[in-house]
Amino acid sequence: MSAKETPAISQLFDLLESRYALRVLWALRDEHAQTFRLLQDSVGGITPNTLNTRIKELREAGLLDHGPSGYLVTDSGKDLLKRLSDVQAFAAKWAANRAKKK
């Protein structure tokens, strides 16, 4: 990994490691706009204060935007979610393997 890539990945991980950040993005993966309340329900368990903070951070990072119908992922957010889509397949396999071991 080059010296330029190290700070970039660290910055992205810092953002995504924030509590509920990935869940907020994941809730918008179908590309349908969601109002604040709907997004809060979609994420589940997130307080309005925390959701406001995550929205602000994700908007500043250029991954989320607000349109007339509600919150949506930006093109950069869509690109990130596309790259994370393999995580869903991995999670299903991982959970099945764990269930077999029990």
Fold and architecture overview:
Pfam families: HxlR (PF01638). Residues 15-96 form the HTH hxlR-type domain. This is Helix-turn-helix domain-containing protein. It comes from Curvibacter microcysteis. With 102 residues, the chain is mainly alpha-helical. It is 66% helix and 8% strand. It has 5 helices and 2 strands. The chain has helices at 5-16, 21-27, 36-43, 48-60, 75-101; strands spanning 64-67, 70-73. A two-stranded antiparallel sheet has the order 1-2.
State Rg.
Answer: 15 Å
- N-to-C SSE string, H for helix and E for strand: HHHHEEH
Tell me, briefly, the overall form. Answer: globular
Low-confidence stretches at least 5 residues in length (pLDDT < 50)? Answer: none
Fraction in beta strands: 5-15%
Number of helix segments? 5
Average pLDDT reading: 93
Spatially, the strands of the biggest sheet line up as 1-2
How many extended strands?
Answer: 2
Helical content stands at: 55-70%
Task: Outline the biggest β-sheet.
Answer: 2 strands, antiparallel
Euclidean distance between termini CA atoms: 38 Å
Structural class, by secondary structure, is mainly alpha
Organism: Curvibacter microcysteis
Protein name: Helix-turn-helix domain-containing protein
Keywords: DNA-binding, Transcription, Transcription regulation
Domain HTH hxlR-type: 15-96
